[in-house]
Amino acid sequence: MKSTIKSSIQADLATVWHVVTSLHDFSWRSDIISIEVFDEKHFKETSKDGYETHFTITVVEPLMKYSFLMDNENLSGEWIGYFTQTGKGTEIQFTESVRLKKWWLYPFAKWYLKKRQKQYVSDLRLKCERK
């Protein structure tokens, strides 16, 4: 299952990149309560619902592309983010490709992914545009 979201953010590329890739300032995220960093490529997020998701960073092309693998009890997959400076700010494109681990999640999965992506971009916009 795959979901892509594209959006424009009224902030410069360096600001958007820094906010997305920082593993230390997650205060802007409305969906998580903590991030635990293990090393330069591995970290864990804990959601407000108590779900722990483990991440492995696979690609860091500064100011262009950021990618990681993710795994939790319900899904595994990959997240890829592309960043482009525009005349009005920054264009972002985020794609999540997931494999569900529980059959009963399938009817809700596409809706849930879209909802989560919209919330992430909304939170990101609020953080970047008020800087």
CATH architectural label: 2-Layer Sandwich
Q: Which spans of ≥5 residues are poorly predicted at pLDDT below 50?
A: none
Tell me the domain tally: 1
Lateral strand order in the biggest sheet: 1-7-6-5-4-3-2
Q: What is the CA-CA span between the terminal residues?
A: 34 Å
Specify the biggest β-sheet.
7 strands, antiparallel
- Named CATH topology: Alpha-D-Glucose-1,6-Bisphosphate, Chain A, domain 4
Number of strands: 7
What would the average pLDDT be, to the nearest integer? 95
Order of helices and strands: EHEEEEEEH
Please work out how many helical segments DSSP would assign.
2
Helix content: 25-40%
CATH C-level class: Alpha Beta
Globally, the shape reads globular
Q: Which structural class do the helices and strands define?
A: alpha+beta
